[in-house]
Amino acid sequence: MISQEFLQSIAASRGIRPAELEVLSLSLSGISTTEIASQLDISEDLVRKRLSRIYIKFEIEGRGPVKFAKLQQLLHNLYQTHLASEREPKIGVIETGLTDNNSDLQITTHPLNPLHNPLPTSSTTHNSQILNRIDWSEVIDVSIFYGRAEELAQLEQWIVRDSSRLIAVVGLGGIGKTALLTKLTQQIQSYFDCVIGRSLHNAPPLESILADLLKSLSHPHEPELSEKVDERIVQLISYLRDRRCLLVLDDVQALLRSNDVYGRYLQGYEGYGALFRRIAEEQHQSCLVLISQEKLREISLLENPSRSIHSLKLEGLKPEDAQQILLGKNLTGKQSWQELIQHYRGNPLHLNLIAATIENIFNRDVGEFVKLKTTVSNTGILDEPFQRLSALEKQVMQWLAKEDKALSFQQLRAKIEEIATSDLIEVLDSLGGRYLIEKVKSKDTNEFLFTLQPVIKKYVTKYHFSSAPKL
Ligand SMILES: Nc1ncnc2c1ncn2[C@@H]1O[C@H](COP(=O)(O)OP(=O)(O)OP(=O)(O)O)[C@@H](O)[C@H]1O
Ligand SMILES: [Mg+2]
User: Fold this and answer.
1) Are 316 and 345 in contact (CB under 8 A)?
2) Which of 169, 170, 312, 349 for a ligand 1 pocket mutation test, highest count of atoms within 8 Å of Cβ?
3) Ligand 1 lined by 173 (C-beta under 6 Å)
4) Could you tell me which CATH number the domain at 380-463 has?
5) pLDDT of residue 85
6) What class is the 4-87 domain?
7) Does 284 contact ligand 1 (Cβ within 6 A)?
């Protein structure tokens, strides 16, 4: 009999949701689909759906009853390995990082690794003390996390199976980049000797982040830090070669300049670009994930599936997943939910904020808010990306904010006479690299049309029209 505790930990490492775990536990206790459905008060179809998701997450292939037998066998084997490892003296040291509140990260030791045997694991032969060391400076709570199955699968494919060396996860603020990586790390951490996460929000100089990473990697020993940045990079890459590490650097946009086109480093921070390029190009067994609100030029230049460098642009949640946010807030007026979700482009942060407003002002009724045909834009979220815009970019954003309809390049060209054609091309390209404009294809002419999503339009109108009164 597999213990519930073990089942929960295996389920967490495979991204199995609580509702799926319920079905799994009941199935393992030997009761039929019909009985499970009646116990949980759900349809049999839903029970089968949950089981099929469980099979996918355990990578079980085959047909109906065979699949369940395979799953039972796999869990049984894993449990036996786990029990055997419990009887052996532990060799791994588990570290939980710099903060006290990172209990969200499921910390697993290598004895669980038979689960992942078909996949590449570390070729480490070094001191066992660094096994499964997790050092994550700011862990966010992802106990409420909806959808993203495709993104999680894609990232797991690149990072774990393809052993990619450099991945960028990019997209607008609040779209869910940090949450996605936190969730992913919970699922894949057992493939790595060490997992390190850092936010670059305060723009640390390169030498200090290198010192920090080297310190974490050499734990529990003090690293011998060279004075020269280049030598620290060599040292870092040598660690990445020796062991399989997952490094996640969040908020990379903080290293980028204001008042310039997208993706250019602050003065004195260009070394980061060189570091990212070396990690992308040199041979090692680790992976660096960069999270950014802006497109990163290195990645665009180096991106190439055969070179193990990829980027994932994160879009809003799918409507069915975004609905879960509204459901979780007990909102009513379901007939208007789709409109609200589309209006906020499935951005989970914006949806959470507007859900709170609807709760406070409209007694939870989405319909009452939607019928006002207005947009509420939380300024704080957009302040930072707007501060980084160049004067020309701000100007083009203002033009786009005035328009009800999306405009083609030629239409924009005709409207904004004061900007040279080459500058306008550069500005549109740059705004695209910051994910601040939307590009849609015209049904009539097949050309691209440019526009702003409602929240951004509202923000620009309200705060960035120099002559316009504040609304
Ligand atoms: N899949 C999801 N399901 C439910 N809530 C989510 C999901 N993804 C993100 N959220 C919530 O949305 C908010 C924003 O997410 P997150 O902080 O990950 O965004 P971000 O893209 O990292 O933003 P920023 O660029 O500002 O750092 C958080 O409160 C988070 O909990
Ligand atoms: Mg973030």
Assistant:
1) yes
2) 349
3) yes
4) 1.10.10.10
5) 60
6) mainly alpha
7) no
